[in-house]
Structures are given as C-alpha cells and as structure tokens.
User: Fold this.
Amino acid sequence: MMKTMNEFWQKHKQGIILYGTMAFVFILIVILATATQDGYPYNNLAIDTDIKVGNFEFDVAWYAVFILTGIMFGAALAYFEFKRFKIDTDILFDGLLYTVPLAIIGARLWWVLFNLGSIHSFGDIFAIQDGGLAIHGAIIVVFLFLIVFTKWKKISYWWMLDLVAPGFLIGQTLGRWGNFMNGELYGPAVDHLNFLPDFISEQMYIGGSYHAPTFLYESLWNFTGLIVLLIIRRKKILKVGDAIGLYFMWYGLIRIPMELLRFQGDPSDPLPLPWLDQVTAWYEMASLWTSVLLVLGGLSILVFKRIFKKDLPYYNELALGNK
Assistant:
C-alpha cells in the first residue's frame, strides 16, 4: 500500500503540488475577501487608496484580484506544458507580456462598445475599478493576436490555442467570484438559498429578495470544463487544436442560459446590442448572441480541422515527442 502511494506521489507530484497550491490560494482569497467584511453587501474594494485622477481611482478591487490570480494560474499551467513539450519558456513570457494587456483592453473595449451610454468622458473608457470587462472581447483579441505571435515565434498556432483554452477557463472560474464581490451577475428572485453557505446566500439578497447565484453556476461549470479538459488532453482523444473548439462550445453553452437568467434578475446587466440603449427583451442581448456564435465557432473549428487538417497529431502524442 505504501509502495503504491509512493509511486503515485512520484508520478503525480508536480501536478498535486501545482493544483493543490492553486486550490489553497483561491480558498484563501475567498476567505480574505469575505471573512474580513463587516456585513452585507460586501465592500468590493480590496485596497482603498483614496487616490483619484479624473474619473480613474487607483483602488484595488476584489474583481481585479480574482482576475489577476486567474491569469497567474493560467500562466503556471502553460509554463509546465512548455516544459513538458521542451519548448523555450521565454516564448511563453513574451506571449504573456503582450496577451495579458491586450486581453484586458479587448475585454474593456468590448464592454464599452455595448455600453456607450455609460461613457461620458475619455477617462470613463479606462475606469475598470468596478468591473466593466466583457470576456468575449478578450477571447476575440487573443484568438486574433496569436495568429501573428505564433508566426513570429515559429510555433504551432493550434498548439498555442490548446494552452490558452485552460487559461481562459481558470480565469473565468475565478473571475466570476469578482462579480460576486461586486454584487452582480445574478438571476431571478427565489424563495431561499438555504443550500448555500451564508456568505454566498446573504450576498445574493438584493433588493429585498434572494436571487439565483448565476455567478456560482457559471464558475462551477467552467471549473468542471477545466478538469475535463486537463484529463482528456492527456489521453489519445484530442488532436492539436481541438481544445480551443471544445472550450468555445463549453463556455458558449453555459453563457446562453446564464444570460437569460441574468435578464430575469437585472435587465440592465446583460450587454445590449450596439444600436440599443438597454435590453428590453431577451433577444436584444449582445452577450447572448455572441455566446451562440461561440458555440457555432467551436463546432466549426472541430469540423474544419477534421476536413482540412487531418494530418495534425494527437495532443498527447505531440507531448510524447511524436512531432
């Protein structure tokens, strides 16, 4: 028994330490964000500097803490994949240097595009301290930028997308807890949330009613997708590039029902189509239709690869050196 456990430890030591550390850090941040509060609703600021220039405040929101932690987790996962594939990790750091700010800019500009009525000055475009990031914009920017980056670094575009997919799932899993601290991303009113811990249910008590915690549903769905993706990419199941297609479909499938629930909770929360000031009906939500396009896009990638890229190897075979 001890020999078997020791063999298991030696074989999976790196993964156990990596994922265990991630879980510990995430739980620690949730505890720090909630246990130090005086009451509900929670203060969404982790650090209040009282420094302000124009409309931009130099405060640190819990939303930013969760997002940045997710980025670091995703980078750590990618780093160990670079090492496993014996590819120069400097390429990864170069990529992060460009993609992280570009992803944040893309997410912000996508939100601004569909919330022009909330922008009253040039400074408002950059005022992200209270949120105002739309993940669809980050996905689009990174997806396009990697076309240029992989040609520049002479590495496989499809392989890089395989590394990006788990990173997005981690970022979205943690990022939704930033929405939780902001008191946003909730669904319709419900009778109770007795099945949840008080620190979640009481934060979801908004406007005199408990509301469905759609932030939690989406976070758990993304976490499940992350686990599934990390497991099956080690098997002879996925070909190089399949992961990004599955990610698009997985994420799009949860955002469609979540957007419909968000509309029932707070109609002003979902992004409206660009020619509308606000959402008045479910079919006017830009984020809903973008999610539909993600599902169709992911399916198209899988079909395209099996027709025009039949020679791509399995991800696991590539990892073993069969290039």
